[in-house]
Amino acid sequence: MKTCNLFGSKTVLSFEVFPPKATSPENTIYQALDGLTKLNPDFISVTYGAGGGRNCEKSLQIASDVKNKYGIESIMHLPCVNLTRENALEILDKLKANHIENILALRGDITDWIAPCGDFSHANELIEFIRENGDFNILAACYPEKHPESKSLVDDIQNLKRKVDAGAGQLVTQLFLDNDYFSAFRERAAIAGISVPIEAGIMPVTNKKSIERMVSLCGINLPKKFLKTMERYENNPVALRDAGIAYAIDQIVDLTAQGVDGIHLYTMNNPYVAEKIYSAVYRLLAA
Ligand code: FAD
Q: Ligand 1: which atom is nearest the Cα of residue 264?
């Protein structure tokens, strides 16, 4: 099923998972999926590191298992910065063979350690390529606080429009901790004529390491309320986890009240956290 067709009658709930790191046992992702799929999300998306290699096969296998073994619709992330057109065609063929109909088309982060070596410079080029080479539902990423490389909010929304015009039928945001950024972003998108569903990316911040990572990678703003909570509980991991869950629930309650199209939960492969959030909000999502 194309996940863009799920929107309209309810608030969609989706999860994001990532393949286990090379140092983790392979089965950890399946333990996570056993718990996450019990919550019956509308779909699960699977990340794919822009470095490529073995990771692609892992992401593909997990996305295929989500769809074909667990019976839940899956999305495969596809960063293009290191893909040739030939690589991309091979991956599209594998997705078709595994009945995966949804792709989150991304540029990928440009890192110091892997020089970009692909045929695509930006996500809109990959979106166009996918549209021309298959019958997929294509998703794209968006940034309520703008992408760090965009010169301005206007520049950022123009890029988003380019991706939608190229064929993206559904959007997922970068995580954010201040809902006001999301509301303002939605307004900018509407003014730019972007009318496809936009899911809000929510990441429950449950440990100190993920806060540091988040700031360095995404450049998002940390609201005072959030910082105070984190400071208060930073030496108590269980209290910090519970505060992170409560913060995410609070964000979701506010977003559903504003009529958000969907919530995309960055689960960090943690079914405990996802279950706590799910049980607090599932009635709101269905209302
Ligand atoms: P683009 O849309 O290409 O934009 C990147 C920058 O280039 C922006 O500043 C934009 O304004 C600018 N730009 C775009 N087109 C043009 C143009 N034609 N001319 C000039 N400037 C232009 N990364 C991974 O490696 N794997 C993942 O699985 C993954 N999953 C993600 C999931 C979500 C929901 C999100 C929000 C991000 C994810 N990322 C992932 C990170 C993503 O790859 C990075 O944020 C990356 O830096 C930008 O990707 P993009 O697709 O938004 O790029």
A: 34
